[in-house]
Task: inverse folding
């Protein structure tokens, strides 16, 4: 496969993300990969290095129980060590387990033989900032059909883009369905703060604002749903995603200096209400709302409703009030 075709394949992975539901994207990507590297079955598992369990499993040409059997036989599997010691570089089973030993092994008899798997090419990818680990293994049913050096090299080049494109598809869907804002970076975590997915910008925030963090999990307490917290100049919030949580991070801005009452007044005033209308809504005196607004102006370093509207991205009705 020439360089131009490879570049087109990589571009196709990213460009197709908006039109494919994220729960089907990885299986679709494996089908595309089969058009450039011949294989009969494939396993794509993502988990966390701390737990050594796969959070997400996608597979092609295998039954739903294969992932469980793979995990159960990991202690018997020498290719796992070879992959972890050579992250990103594809490892052929024959490189770590000579054929004569492999085909007589307990591992082959328990895991691979029942599925007709005779040749294995696996590669791993890990992000040390998040602890996210991916195993992508390709299988052939013909023992005489070895993976070539060119196919290994191609697998090496494509694994990063397969993982990145799948993450891109996931967060595109997330932004559309959960209305996550463009200035926020997001990650998916469990209750313990262990990562299941993470945008690069989210991990960049953690590296920059929490440079001394040690673990591969969130360096702060998971915020209660619906309540944002401020940590190290970042505003952090969460919302549920099934049994997991969408954790959003953004840099703190001027509006974060406001009290809850001041934020309420800003919202009402920027929606076009007059002092009297805002005061009635909040059961306050108009003069109290006016005093609050002047303190808001002072905090934000502005002097008019127009400037306030620009800060919150709103359009206000023309008013004689300041």
Result:
């Amino acid at each position: 496969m020439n360089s131009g075709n490879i570049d087109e394949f990589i571009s196709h992975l990213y460009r197709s993300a908006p039109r494919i539901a994220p729960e089907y994207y990885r299986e679709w990507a494996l089908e595309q990969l089969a058009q450039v590297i011949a294989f009969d079955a494939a396993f794509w598992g993502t988990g966390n290095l701390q737990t050594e369990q796969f959070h997400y499993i996608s597979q092609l040409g295998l039954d739903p129980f294969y992932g469980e059997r793979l995990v159960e036989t990991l202690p018997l599997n020498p290719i796992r060590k070879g992959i972890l010691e050579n992250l990103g570089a594809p490892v052929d089973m024959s490189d770590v387990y000579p054929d004569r030993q492999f085909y007589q092994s307990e591992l082959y008899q328990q895991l691979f033989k029942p599925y007709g798997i005779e040749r294995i090419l696996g590669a791993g990818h890990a992000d040390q900032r998040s602890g996210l680990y991916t195993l992508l293994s390709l299988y052939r049913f013909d023992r005489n059909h070895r993976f070539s050096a060119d196919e290994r090299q191609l697998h090496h080049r494509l694994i990063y883009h397969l993982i990145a494109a799948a993450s891109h598809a996931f967060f595109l869907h997330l932004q559309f369905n959960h209305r996550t804002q463009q200035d926020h970076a997001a990650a998916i975590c469990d209750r313990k703060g262990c990562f299941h997915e993470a945008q690069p910008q989210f991990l960049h925030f953690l590296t920059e604002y929490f440079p001394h963090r040690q673990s591969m999990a969130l360096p702060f307490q998971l915020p209660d749903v619906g309540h944002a917290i401020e940590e190290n100049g970042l505003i952090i919030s969460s919302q549920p995603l099934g049994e997991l949580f969408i954790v959003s991070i953004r840099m703190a801005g001027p509006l974060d200096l406001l009290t809850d009452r001041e934020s309420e007044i800003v919202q009402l005033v920027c929606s076009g209400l007059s002092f009297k209308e805002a005061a009635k809504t909040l059961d306050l005196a108009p003069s109290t709302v006016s005093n609050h607004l002047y303190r808001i102006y002072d905090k934000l370093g502005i002097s008019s409703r127009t400037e306030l509207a620009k800060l919150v991205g709103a359009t206000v009705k023309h008013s004689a009030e300041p």
Remarks:
- The CA atoms of residues 17 and 171 lie 10 Å apart.
- The radius of gyration is 26 Å.
- Confidence is low (pLDDT under 50) at residues 314-320.
